[in-house]
Design brief:
The protein is 50% helix and 16% strand. A 4-stranded mixed sheet has the order 1-4-5-8. The chain has a 4-stranded antiparallel sheet with strand order 2-3-7-6, with no helix packed on it. Helix 4 packs antiparallel against helix 6 (222-258) and helix 7 (270-298) packs antiparallel against helix 8. The protein is globular, with a radius of gyration of 21 Å. It has 10 helices and 8 strands. The chain is an alpha+beta fold.
């Protein structure tokens, strides 16, 4: 894909990550790739230099994930560990939390999961029922979370709970670092029909006692802190989807150039060529919006980044699903074989439409926030 609007540094980073991804390739060992990417500094490009990171932002981190995915070696935990958790701790954590977590998140030696979704809350974060109650020396958490990625390989999970506002009595969002082996912190593997290295879990928090320093940031600024992590999540989901779409498209184009049924390669026929060209256009457009969202976020424009990040996530998911469908159709029966590695993407590509927020909720966001239309809920 064209990179001529990027800086020479970004172009060089893109080439280096692409080379790393291709060395590992489809069927990659997730742990080995994660370790190498961490040692090379790719996992922490967005984190502050004083804590072992690269000093960049979401522009660099989304580039890394996109290129790894385009090589057929996506790292889903990048969406969670350095992007959400690393960003939140870097922006709002105490000095002790930063020293304890950021160097490890940057070099890949430590990982952190993120728990927000609940069985009865879904897209409505105001219905979160996981509660945090002050105790004499800290906090006690009770509740449940679902569809939490990588809890088994994460050293801790950043849990979104709700505390009671002493002034109003209303519940407000707060973020807590919960180490994996904390008593009362249980997990159950959710069997998924997805070909993904990272597993999904349901979490239970049954009188989980945490020290006071487990709270990230200001107790009264929880919602601000929460959304500071959700915009990077949407940007990184867009990168994940664009990388997957590029991988599928590249496989289909290579096949269409070689596969010959009559006298010419099938790619010479417009019925094959045009859908592939459309996918290229749609992926490029989605990438431009992702780059815009990343730059706005890195510039500190949280409001502008919120709109752009949602649009980028929407556009990338749609482009990815279409690219995968087009690629499978281009290969015909071969598109469903393990040899070509495309069929497994049929389900995986739809994840970007669903998570971390559905495309319908993004349309709601644009309707209300951008167009000023009245809410329907």
């Amino acid at each position: 894909m064209s990179t001529d609007i990027e800086s020479p540094e970004h172009t060089a980073l893109r080439a280096a990550v692409a080379a790393l991804g291709h060395r590992h390739g489809p069927g990659f060992d997730r742990a080995a790739l994660w370790e190498e990417a961490g040692k090379l500094g790719y996992l922490g490009v967005n984190l502050p230099e004083e804590y072992g990171g690269g000093g960049g932002g979401m522009a660099e981190l989304s580039l890394v994930l996109e290129e790894a995915g385009a090589a057929g070696a996506p790292l889903l935990m990048m969406v969670v560990s350095p992007a959400i958790c690393g960003t939140v701790i870097a922006r709002f954590g105490t000095e002790e939390q930063k020293r304890a977590w950021l160097p490890g998140l940057a070099d890949g030696s430590r990982t952190m999961a993120f728990g927000i979704t609940e069985p009865d809350a879904g897209s409505n974060s105001h219905r979160i029922t996981t509660t945090a109650t002050r105790t004499g020396d800290g906090w006690t958490l009770n509740g449940r979370k679902v569809f939490v990625s990588g809890v088994d390989i994460a050293d801790a999970t950043l849990i979104v709970g709700r505390t009671s506002d002493a002034r109003t009595g209303n519940l407000k969002a707060c973020l807590f670092i919960v180490p994996r082996d904390t008593p009362g912190f249980g997990r159950r593997h959710i069997e998924m029909e997805l070909d993904a290295a990272e597993k999904q879990f349901e979490l239970t928090l049954d009188d989980v006692h945490l020290p006071a320093e487990a709270l990230v940031g200001d107790e009264d600024a929880g919602l601000l802190q929460l959304f500071a992590g959700l915009n990077p999540e949407r940007i990184m989901t867009a990168a994940f989807a664009i990388g997957m779409g590029r991988f599928a498209l590249d496989r289909a184009v290579a096949y269409a150039k070689e596969r010959q049924v009559w006298k010419a390669p099938i790619g010479a026929h417009q019925a094959i060529a045009h859908p592939l060209a459309q996918s290229r256009i749609e992926l490029e457009l989605a990438r431009l919006m992702m780059q815009k969202a990343a730059r706005l976020y890195d510039a500190g424009d949280d409001m502008g980044a919120g709109e752009a990040a949602n649009m980028a996530k929407y556009a990338a998911a749609e482009a990815c699903v279409k690219a995968v469908d087009t690629a499978v159709h281009t290969l015909g029966g071969n598109g469903l074989t393990k040899e070509f590695g495309l069929a497994r993407l049929i389900a995986a590509s739809r994840v970007a439409r669903i998570a971390p927020v559905s495309r319908e909720m993004i349309l709601n966001f644009v309707s209300h926030q951008t167009l000023g239309l009245p809410k329907s809920y």
